[in-house]
């Protein structure tokens, strides 16, 4: 049986800078330019979810954050991910504020102390032409 191809991300004009940044190994976030807001935004949008301003600019993020929750995926929903299971799917509170969901690149020796652990971004090939942000323990 042929190996299943991973589903590609749905790239559109709104999120293209995020995915282009991934291919350059840079984690890009939008930041609201409204003077009374200035919050970072993830996932990419056309307007700020906090104040409604449409004035969002792309900025390179630090790539650091803290694990706030996780789960271990034993049976992925898509056959292309079966060879990688089990893997850790994590929610990371980025240093800039937004919550981002991703994966750990390595299996930890113990998952008893994952909550609150510091992580940093790394970029992993998802397909021949697209990298995605994963995280590693620091």
3D shape: globular
Unreliable stretches, pLDDT < 50, 5 or more residues?
none
Straight-line distance between termini: 39 Å
**What is the total domain count?**
1
Element-level helix/strand string: HEEEEEEEE
Whole-number radius of gyration? 16 Å
How would you describe this structure to a colleague?
This protein is mainly β. The protein has one domain (16-137). 6% of the residues lie in helices and 38% in strands. It is built from one helix and eight strands, in the order αββββββββ. The protein has one helix spanning 16-23, and strands at 28-32, 40-41, 56-60, 64-73, 87-94, 99-103, 118-127, 130-137. The strands form two sheets. It has a five-stranded antiparallel β-sheet, with helices on one face. It has a three-stranded antiparallel β-sheet with strand order 2-1-3. β1 (28-32) and β2 (40-41) form a beta hairpin. The longest helix has 8 residues, at 16-23. The protein is globular and about 50 Å long. It starts with 15 loop residues before the first helix and ends with a strand. 16% of the residues are buried.
What is the secondary structure topology, with strand pairs?
Layout: H1 16-23, E1 28-32, E2 40-41, E3 56-60, E4 64-73, E5 87-94, E6 99-103, E7 118-127, E8 130-137
Antiparallel strand pairs: 1-2, 1-3, 4-5, 4-7, 5-6, 7-8
Using brief descriptors, characterize the structure shown.
1 helix; mainly beta; 138 residues; single chain; 8 strands; 3-stranded antiparallel sheet; 5-stranded antiparallel sheet; 6% helix
Summarize the structure.
This protein has 138 residues and is mostly beta strands. The chain contains 1 helix and 8 strands, in the order H-E-E-E-E-E-E-E-E.
